[in-house]
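Why do we bother with holo predictions? Because pocket geometry can differ from the apo form. Keep that in mind while you read this record for guanosine-5'-diphosphate.
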Amino acid sequence: MRCIGCGAIIQTENKDALGFLPAGALDKKIKNDEALYCQRCFRLRHYNEIAPTQLTDEDFLKLLKKVGQQDALIVNVVDIFDFNGSLIPNLHKLTGNNDLLMVANKRDVLPKSLKVGKLTAWLKEQAAKKGLKPQEILVTSAKNKADVIELMTAIEQYRRGRNVYVVGVTNVGKSTLINAIITQASGDQELITTSRFPGTTLDMIEIALDEKTSIIDTPGIIHRGQMAHYLEPEDLKYVSPRKEIKPKTYQLNAEQTLFFGGLARFDFINGERQGMTAYFDNEINIHRTKLDGATAFYEKHQGTLLSPALVATKLVRHEFSVSGKTDIVFSGLGWVRVPERARVAAWVPEGVDVEKRKALI
Ligand code: GDP
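The structure, written out:
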């Protein structure tokens, strides 16, 4: 018996391990012929509580290696809003010569004016830099029915009668997509647990495609460089934008600083005055101040003027030279587009990745 939410095998012995359901609850559910959810998924669905997961990075690598040894189609779901933060390190090495379909999800978050063709070309270039050569890159929004149908058609085309493994780091929308596929294929509603908490899909879950083959949803690996791991649960909304981002352009002079709530900071150290554009969740408070004194300003206003506040960690500085049309990416939180030559610094919580890349927009 497996949990219908996360796929873990149901057990009644160890409340800290995967798939736990108290014996009494299990008996009752069987007697009443109710859907079986483990306690963890039940809580998640009903109270949005979270229990720690037990899948280690090592387990995940083993799992990917196993997938790589089979002749199957691999579907890698990534988050367009957090592209580099949502790539699986060394995926190309682990999955060998398997066919790869890349699904870039959360299209709805990016400005509508960005053309899909340009976006796909950019994604292809970025993927190639990481050694990934997908057969195709599909841009989706998990909540858009037309995109889900297109994804199902592409899977059918590329799998050529083989099994399909869906892989991705946590929080890219993998469960939401799989749910949409199930709903589309069977009319069943939301059988798999989805949530805003990173790391909530456990163990493998299998959905039959025909007599012999299936779609297998694998657990997401936790990418520690993602901002989501350094936030309080109530602040996760800032790293999972729900709506189209409204970019904000600031005409900045050298020696000016932008704060993104209390979560990150951007310094324009030197260069000509220019319009720098911030792509962040619309609800994040962006505050402009002088570079000189910015650290004292942060200490004074963190949690009040500069909110949401950062907890239990500090901001670390990363300096970059930019020669034009570059994004400085705060992994999972957003990015600043720098159009011209400049020297800048990005401050993020210790452990979060920062990156310089060719401008997306
Ligand atoms: P998983 O960990 O990869 O299985 O991710 P989930 O399916 O649990 O989704 C993580 C978060 O992203 C949830 O808050 C979803 O509602 C949200 N999400 C998933 N797909 C999309 C999408 O296409 N657009 C937007 N804006 N949010 C999405």
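The chain is about 25% helix and 25% strand.
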